[in-house]
Amino acid sequence: MRALLLSAAILLSLQAFPQSALRTDSVYISGKVNYFEKYKDSANAVLFYINDIVLGDELTLRVKINNDGTFKTAFLKTGTQDIYMEYNDKLSTIIVSPGDHMQLLFNAGDPEQTLSFKGSNSQTNYDLLAYGAAFDKESIRIYGAEPNARALKNNFAVRDSSNPDAYKSYVVTQFKADSAFLANYISAHALSPTFVNWAKADLKYRLASNLMRYPWLHPRYAQIKDNSFKVPDSYYKFVDQFPVNDPSQALTSNFNEYIAEYRLYLAAKELGKQYPASSAIALFARQPFSFSKDVLLCNAFYKLIHDKELEAVKQNLGVLEKNVTDTYFKNKVLAAYRQAAHIAEPLAASSFKKAISEGDSVLNNLTAKYRNKVIYIDFWGTWCSPCRAEMPYSKVLRAKFAGKDVVFLYLGVQSKEAEWKAMIKTLDIKGENVLLSNNQFSALSEKFQISGIPRYVLINKQGKVADGNARRPGDKLLVAEIQKLLAL
């Protein structure tokens, strides 16, 4: 397997990459959960996490399981890519393609080990399962059998590597070892071409994402001020070796994550730390190749929509219309904008009462007793390092609003009760603490589109969601936002 850091002389020219749009079509998934009767009170739904390359976001789809254990769903997907299925706290990776009709079968008590496939991409996914088992075995050999041992070591490397070159050396060495393992695995097995291409792209863009996240993730994990840690410009020499204009690399969701980081990097490099939205949009519109231009522009516009900066979107719609060449990409962003701006609502929509979802019901039950108070909700888990890293900042925030009408509601997820109680004491989490059931968390995950934690939500004094993706406790701007809600 080639080393990661290729010389520029052997890199393919960006102009050689195809400019055609990725195909978009529906994916149809049906399935059966064996022995569901025993688990339906604690795990009554399947969650699918679907990366959206157009919006630069991960969407959460909750599928309720019928009493006989069957379920079915459908969703639009752009390009072949991995998605994630979660049931009963167990996560599985599945590769899907636009137009797929796929059937899944697994046992409720052990979905990871019993998952089987019929229909489209079956061989690809059986290859993925077998490779995943072999990779996990190799990871245990290297890092030990402790749960999440590899992930923990990688998190410690981010936290403890104050030297950017030392961190880069660590992740590149790991990439080379992973690549050598993959090359040996490929040579020893007859594999689906789709799986082989996915596995190579997945390793490559996982490395790229790790390298790009380090400059902002290290200060957070090490609990130091962001502006006190800087990486030299030479650190980013790796960027040219991870092209963003190659649609074939979008097989892996790590490509989406890298695009998101690259967009922020490019804007900061060319425009500085602070810049108006119009400048960033103009910068992305100047990119020379259609695929990366489309993705960067659509991601940037959707981020503005998500952050409710609708006036900035309105002022720059002409740039979107003129520069995004993929019609589906363009229309998807425009639809998101119209929905956020309440433009062209369906006829007589106001005459229909909106149905109360299961997520609404769970949220109401959790927050009803705190009416007339601002509620800051913190979704966290005992196993989540970023969650724990924010708790000292949360303690400072609680002190800031002591005696005020602000409730800090800490919702523990996917954690064992004994460990959850011990962690509350260890981290001094004073406030309202609730350990969510799997069913409660899956309902709230769909409502707030939670695909990872920590996640924060602000509820106003009237009991309405003020921000479904609020700032983290360590963000200095959060204080002003809570004060604004108190004043209303």
Automatic annotation (TrEMBL):
This is TlpA family protein disulfide reductase. Residues 341-487 form the Thioredoxin domain. Residues 1-21 form the signal peptide. Keywords: Cytochrome c-type biogenesis, Disulfide bond, Redox-active center, Signal. It is found in: Cell envelope. Pfam families: Thioredoxin_8. One of its GO terms (cellular component) is cell envelope. One of its GO terms (biological process) is cytochrome complex assembly. InterPro entries: Thioredoxin-like_fold, Thioredoxin-like_sf, Thioredoxin_domain, Thioredoxin_ResA/DsbE_sf.
